[in-house]
Amino acid sequence: MAGGKKKNCYRKTRKGKPFPGVQRYSKFIDQRIEEAAGTSQAVRNDGENEPACVSSSRKTMQIQHDAEQQADASSDFEQDEYLLINVVLLLKEKSAQRYGLKSEISVSCNSCHKETSLVTSGSVAERGTSYDVNRRAVYHSIETGSGYEGLASFCSIMNMPCISKPAYQQQIKTILLSLEEEANEQMKNAGKELHELMISNETADVVDIAVSFDGTWAKSAKRGFTSLAGVVFVISVDTGKVLDYHCLSKACQKCSLKKSKCKDDAQFQEWQVEQLASGDCDINFDGSSPAMECEGAVTFDGGSKAHAAVEDVYGGQCKVEKLDCVGHVQKRMGKHLMKLKASNKSKLSDGKTIGGKGRLTEGKIKQLQKYYGLAIRQNTSKKPNPTQAEI
Fold first, then answer.
1. N or C: fewer beta carbons within 10 Å in the chain?
2. Can you give the residue ranges of every domain in the chain?
3. Other CB atoms closer than 10 Å to residue 330's CB: what's the count?
4. Are 262 and 256 in contact (CB under 8 A)?
């Protein structure tokens, strides 16, 4: 009807209970699906009875393809063979072949009695019983400073067997010999590199070089006054590489242990003569601990005692010159300022003490140290070996 109201195609939801039966539209859809399924089944049955029209070339290819599939199936069957047997694997550790952290595990078959051994670490020597895992563990204890007690504690926590103490000491000897050999080779190469560098700048075969020298002790907190061992290093100023080092010791652990076992001093002295002759004694210095730094230096960090000991070691023709290290000059300045502050507790002429707010405090001393070193560095030649024109 023209101009009439259009009919709404959406129905409102009826209130109350929904229709419990089967919808008419759903019955119609199910019937159409059943008819279509029956038709397709009939067509399939008819196709099975009647041979399909296939070209001769397609038939030939299909025959070849079927033959290849059969050949592959037969070859796969011949290659893959399966055998069901009753196998029991026995895994056990050979305790007799245990050396420290290294173990040997045996895998055996209960049926054929075939046995295979598995080693947990490779050997690092052609002869003997030195294994890689033990050497690395000892090397780690040396680097960390934990020693044998630290390694034994770690192994006990991990429930692992530890290396025996004699084997540990033997590993340390081997590692130290290798480290010394490598260090000597590196210092030799550093010397050659420095010589070639200086020869390129100078015309003479023998040239003067600038080196920095410093020492350290086992007890650095007390500046080595009570330490029994120390080590000194010589470092090139031009290359920054170590050229030489020397270890000094006032005590020997072997001698101390032997002395405690000897009945009297005569027996110990008789043994000590043989020990010194063989070169196994670690004692190579009998002076005071601070005097260790005076051994074998060329150019030092400003220590007056060390420089006086070697100033004329080469005679009058070649005199050792002292070049002060800026860092040590800074530390000496700060040390003297701290000493001045500690010694002057009384009030000054202005009625105030030397320390306190706005005066010479610890922070102010560190600031003066920094500025003092900075002023020295900014007003010296940047090259370690300047020419006369640059000076």
1. N
2. 99-194, 210-250+285-323, 326-379
3. 19
4. no
